[in-house]
Amino acid sequence: MSNNDHPFVHHVYFWLNNTGSKEDLEQLVAGLKKLSAVKTIKVSYIGKPAGTNREVIDSSYSVSWLCFFDNKADQDSYQTDPIHLKFVDECKHLWKKVIVYDTVGF
Fold it and tell me: What is the average pLDDT across 41-57?
């Protein structure tokens, strides 16, 4: 199988500025729900730390955003989509740190 036969996976982790703020958390989740309207996203999932506790688990983040695209070109389009740009503009004040893991299949 080539990379074109596998989805492009985009996983984003957000650390909120105000970790105890229910309002900030709700605003970020609401923004991500709006972001899921980007047409090139095939599947999206909003998550939070699962409460598991092992040495290899990092549960220091506040929210995770997992998206599947058909290919890299669709993910590239997502990056410049007006819905994505609006999300960043409206929500960037909420987070102090973001880490992204993009993966493709072997």
Answer: 97
